[in-house]
Specification:
Blueprint: H1 14-24, E1 31-34, E2 38-41, H2 45-55, E3 63-69, E4 72-77, E5 83-94, E6 97-109, E7 122-128, E8 136-137, H3 163-189
Parallel strand pairs: 2-8
Antiparallel strand pairs: 1-2, 3-4, 5-6, 5-7
Length: about 200
């Protein structure tokens, strides 16, 4: 399943943004999450995917059975205090790009709500613990150039500021505040007026 959590992406989905920000605290994109535990990010993620999946020791249990009948999704599970999320995924070809199993809708299943959007190719059922899920870096080379963005939004371009620019701006500011500084020093040195008591 793939997500487009940034509103600058085609097929942006707010539920994906919330999942990436509040659950995984991801730093950069694209990122691959292996079994909800490991994070592949950076330049080597494609080469290390097979190794990361092979080294995963995750034991899946909890969902015994799931079935969809008459517009209602029913799930039998034997774990308490978990979130059951259903992602509707669909594959697209759009403007020369192929999107495979892209998340297009999200539903949180509960006792009171078992309706899901079926306007897609597949339903992906995810059982997870509530709250933040810490990820372990499984890339052999840590990602570089990723900055925590505090949110997923439009990319900002950072530019280098030349040292001479900083010196010039500082000198101009000093010249601008010089008259006020001279006047302040003059007032401080001035003898206070002498008031006589009557």
């Amino acid at each position: 399943m793939s997500h487009h959590p940034s509103d600058s992406n085609d097929f942006w989905l707010n539920a994906s943004k919330i999942r990436f920000q509040e659950t995984y605290f991801l730093w950069g994109y694209p990122s691959l999450i292996i079994d909800g535990q490991g994070l592949l990010a950076g330049k080597t993620q494609a080469q290390e995917l097979d190794s990361a999946i092979s080294n995963s020791t995750m034991n899946y249990s909890g969902i015994d059975q799931a079935w969809f009948e008459n517009g209602t999704l029913s799930i039998d599970y034997d774990v308490v205090d978990v979130n059951i999320d259903v992602w509707t995924v669909k594959s697209y070809s759009y403007q020369g790009h192929d999107y495979t199993n892209l998340a297009i809708n999200h539903s949180r299943i509960s006792i009171n709500n078992s309706s899901v959007d079926t306007n897609g190719d597949h339903l992906v059922i995810v059982m997870s613990e509530p709250g933040q899920l810490p990820l372990e870096m499984v890339s052999s080379i840590p990602p570089t150039g990723y900055l925590p963005d505090g949110g997923i939004g439009k990319a900002e371009t950072l530019s280098q500021i030349d040292t001479s620019t900083i010196v010039i701006i500082t000198a101009l500011l000093a010249i601008l505040i010089l008259p006020a500084t001279v006047e302040l020093v003059r007032l401080i040195r001035q003898k206070p007026p002498d008031f006589e008591q009557e």
